[in-house]
Amino acid sequence: MNAADLIREAVRGLESNRGRSLLTILGIVIGIAAVIAMTSLIGGVRNMLVGSLGLNAARAVYISPMYQMTVEDLDDLKRIMPEYESIVASSYGYTQVSGADGTIDVGITGADADFLSLTGQIHLAEGRMFNAQEEASADRVAILDRSGVKALFGDADMSVVGKTVRLGTHDYRIVGVDESMPQTGGGSTYITVYMPLETCLKDFSGGYEYLSQVIGFAREGADIDALMETTKTQVAKVLNIPDDQIEDGVYVYSMKSQIDSMNGFMNSFSLIMGAVAGISLLVGGIGIMNMMLTNVTERIREIGVRRALGATRSDITLQFLMESAALCIVGGIIGTVLGYAASWALSFAATTFGLAGSLTGTEGTITPAVSIEAIVAAAGLSVLIGLVFGFYPARRAARMDPVECLRYQ
Predict the structure, then answer these.
(1) With contact defined as beta carbons under 8 Å apart, do 107 and 191 qualify?
(2) Beta strand pairing status for 190-195 and 102-111?
C-alpha cells in the first residue's frame, strides 16, 4: 500500500466519524493553542522589556568614576580602548524659564548624536539630530520633547523646528522634536531639552566642565565581564587613580547581567506554561488512543476483509497510524491558528487595560513574538502524539486473526 492510498484511506476513515473526530482532537487543539499563545506572549513581553532598555543594552558598559572626568579624558579613553565600538558621554544642566502657566523647570541633557541614538533616548517625530559641525563648534541648537513644545508654545503638535527658545541667557534654535517623551498635562512644570555636549558644558556647567555619564558600547561578541575589568583599569590610568583606590574610585557595570536574569526568568516561566499545556496534550493523546481503539473494534470485519485480500500486518498498522497522525495534524493546524489569534487578543487586552505597564514597569504595546521554531515544534509534536498514542491501537488491529475477524458480526 503506497503513501497516496494510506492518506486516502485515513481521510475516508475520519470523514465517516466527523463528530467523534472533532471532539477527540479538542485536547490537541487546546494544548497546541496554549503553547503557541503563551510562547508568543512571553516572547512579546521579553522584547518589550529589552526594547525599553534600548536595542544596545546588552553591549552597554556604564562607567561612573568617582573622580571628575573631562572631554579630554574621554578622548584618551577612546584611544587606549579599541575594544569598544563607541564610547559616548553626556552632561546634565538645569535652568528655569517662564511659561504661560508659570515657571517651568528645564532639565538639560548635553550629548552627541551617537549617545542619543545608541541609548535609544531619542525618537524624532520632526526635524533632525545635531550634525558633526554643530557638535564641534558648540552651536546653540536644541531638541525638545513633546511636553516641552506644549509648555513653551502652548500646543504639543505645533511645528516648532526652526523656532528659537530662550534658556538661561541664550537663545537656542530648535532642530528637532522628540516623540518618545510622553505628553504631559498642563499641571506639569518639568521638561527635557537635548543639546550638543559641548554646548551644555559651555553654557550650563557653571565653569566645571565635567562629564555626568560615560557609556561604552562593546563590539559584537565581546566578553562583557572581562571588558568591564579592563575598563576599570584603563579608566584609573587615564584619571591617574592610585591602584589602592581603583575599587572605590571607579564603578563599572553592565545591563547584561540584568538581561540574562530576565531571560532566565522568562524561560522558566515558559517552561512552566509549557508543562501546563503539556497536560492538555497528554489528555488529548489519551483521547486519540481511546478513539482509535473504538475504531478498531468497530472495523474488525473490515480488517478481516483487508487481510483476506492480501493486506499485511504492516499495511494495517500503517493505515491506523496514518489515521491517528492525521487527527493530530488537523488538531495541530487548528490549534496553531487559534493560538496565534489568542496571543494577539491577550496582547491587546494587556495593553488596553494597562496590564502591560504593571507587568513590565514600562509604557508601550506588547506585540506577540510568533516564532517559526514554535510553529514547527507544534507541528512536530502533533505528529509525535499521533504516532505514540496511535501505535498500540494500530498494532492491536494488525495482530488480529483474519479468520476470527471475518466471523465477527
Answers:
(1) yes
(2) parallel
- Sign for the CA dihedral angle at 314, 317, 320, 322 comes to negative
CA distance 311 to 302: 11
Please, are residues 239 and 71 in contact by the beta-carbon 8 Å criterion?
no
Grid coordinates standing for 54? 534600548
User: Which parts of 239-255 fold into alpha helices (H)?
Assistant: 246-249
Residue-wise DSSP of 340-352: HHHHHHHHHHHHH
Whether pLDDT at 185 is above 50: no
Q: Which residues, including other chains, have CB under 8 Å from residue 191's CB and lie 6 or more apart?
A: 104, 105, 106, 107, 144, 145, 147, 148, 151, 152
- The amino acid at 219: R
Rounded CA-CA distance 89/64 in Å is: 11
- CA 174 vs. chain centroid, Å, equals 34
The grid cell for 4 is 497516496
Report the distance separating Cα 64 and Cα 62, nearest Å. 7
pLDDT tens-digit map of 224-279? 888 888 888 899 989 888 888 888 888 888 877 777 777 777 778 777 877 777 78
What percent of the chain is helix, strand and coil (3-state, nearest 5)? 60, 15, 25
Residues 325, 331: Cα–Cα separation, whole Å? 10
Q: How far apart are the first and last CA of the chain?
A: 27
Percentage of the chain beyond pLDDT 70 is 88
User: What are the backbone angles phi and psi of residue 20, rounded to the nearest 5°?
Assistant: -65, -40
Rounded Cα–Cα distance for residues 108 and 191 (Å) = 9
Tens digits of residue pLDDT in 220-236: 878 888 888 888 889 99
Beta bridge mates, 25: none
Place of cell 526635524: 127
Give the C-alpha separation, 173 to 365, whole Å: 33
